[in-house]
Amino acid sequence: HRKVNSICCIGAGYVGGPTCAVIAAANPHINVQIVDVNQSRIDAWNSDVLPIYEPGLAETVAKSRNRNLFFSTNVSQAIEEADLIFVSVNTPTKKSGMGRGFAADLGYVEAATRQIAKIAKSDKIVVEKSTVPCRTAQSIRLILEANSRSGVHFDILSNPEFLAEGTAIQDLMHPDRVLIGSQDTVAGFSACASLAEVYSAWVPRDKIITMNVWSSELSKLAANAMLAQRISSINALSAICEATGADVDEVAHAVGLDSRIGPKFLKSSVGFGGSCFRKDILNLVYLSESLNLPEVAAYWRQVVEMNEYQKFRFARKVLHSLFDTMSNKRIAVFGFAFKKDTGDTRESAAITLVQSFAEEMASVAIYDPKVEERQVWLELTSNDTDIEAKVKERVTICNSALEAAGGADAIVIATEWDEFKDTNLNYADVYRVMNKPAFIFDGRSILNAGVITDIGFKLHTIGKGTEGRFE
Ligand code: NAI
């Protein structure tokens, strides 16, 4: 197989940036160029304040930046120089047209593919890193072959990314597996070996698994669908717990001890968020429907519906506990990121909660340790100036948890940041600055109920029965 000397990564986002920074650090002999059309994102990658927050990312980037790792907007030059090209662009849900609201918008993948075809003067290995519907590799192949210069050969691989935000560097350094899908041909196997060699610089060989392209593409959708399904399953149980006096953490513990089920990813919450779960399941729903498998589609769709229900159920609980009115009340929302240790807010449950409180005419005070102010406004207003004026009447952004809680009737814990735990935040101080009765709605089950109720708070925790607590 051919040795890879130069890599180009199209798309400097949450996946392309960290993945290729780790590749560059482990392969000092490979020249890695990460390119993007977004100038400000590239400027940030080249600055001291990276465009995304991940524990360990800044240190990893610092190891190789301007040595064998480069960030630029010169997409064409990077394509031309590379032996291997990762396509790591966004694949959002289609907003209009056929499959709107479900199917993946492959416009960015296609644009990147066409640019590769146009620019390439030598053979390239093109790697699908983005999460794409099953059989996208075939479309990429057709576009490349129809538009390439004569004599230029392309091999297409599927190499889905399994990193989780918040632990991206850890996941990349110690992956459960690296998956490479290739065509069943000599050229396909050779391309696969070239990419496997890049990973083998730090990943044990037995964790690098290879299979056919379609299986590889589908495996990514399947993994996300099954992860989200676990969350929806435990959240469905959390509703039963709240209604009966059972405790979802105890149930999850007992259930997770079954080695066939396992203890991980069984934490009940106010609902999953992030850019991937919802999008990838809806994508699978669309795929099932287009394959004329309506029962399969309905099954997966229910995972998303349960998640919407969980957010609604929690918001309703808050309203009901506050004597069914929020007008003239201040609600402190702790956390806006979709989970801890990331600044990413895409599909965050906090967005739905804040919007529903604002509609109830509450004044909402948000504090998140990592999410930038403009990102909160962007999520809540979608850049619409009319909406913005209305939202800013009701919502403020604070610099600390204590500031958000000042004068509030209730605290809603939307993100499980460590600093919101009662071992890190002084809830006695928080209690003092709040209106009474002071409520806490723990949407992540991070608080020690005894500690909190002893201070005087009225506490509702997701998935905990109300026995011994307030109703
Ligand atoms: P992102 O939106 O953070 O980054 C994508 C980048 O691609 C953007 O900066 C955009 O400007 C750039 N881009 C789009 N078209 C381009 C073009 N033609 N030329 C150059 N740059 C272009 O997206 P993210 O989160 O990195 O996701 C990328 C893919 O990876 C998606 O398919 C996603 O489903 C998948 N994925 C995401 C994970 C995550 O945790 N965010 C985990 C695993 C997979």
Strand content: 5-15%
Mean pLDDT: 96
Major sheet summary line: 6 strands, parallel
Percent in helix: 40-55%
Strand-pairing-aware structural class: alpha/beta
| CATH topology assignment of the largest domain | Rossmann fold
> What is the global morphology?
globular
Please work out how many helical segments DSSP would assign: 18
State the domain count.
2
Please name the CATH architecture of the largest domain.
Answer: 3-Layer(aba) Sandwich
How would you sum up this structure, described in words?
The protein is of the alpha/beta class and 471 residues long. The chain has two domains: 198 residues, NAD(P)-binding Rossmann-like Domain (Rossmann fold), CATH 3.40.50.720; 185 residues, 3-Layer(aba) Sandwich (Rossmann fold), CATH 3.40.50. The protein is built from 18 helices and 14 strands. A six-stranded parallel sheet has the order 3-2-1-4-5-6, sandwiched between helices. A six-stranded parallel sheet has the order 11-10-9-12-13-14, sandwiched between helices. It has a two-stranded parallel ribbon with strand order 7-8. α1 packs across α3, α9 packs parallel to α12 and α12 crosses α13. The radius of gyration is 24 Å and the shape is globular. The chain starts with 5 loop residues before the first strand and ends in a 10-residue tail after the last strand. Bound molecules: 1,4-dihydronicotinamide adenine dinucleotide. The site of 1,4-dihydronicotinamide adenine dinucleotide has 27 residues, from α5. This is UDP-glucose 6-dehydrogenase. Belongs to the UDP-glucose/GDP-mannose dehydrogenase family. Keywords: NAD, Oxidoreductase.
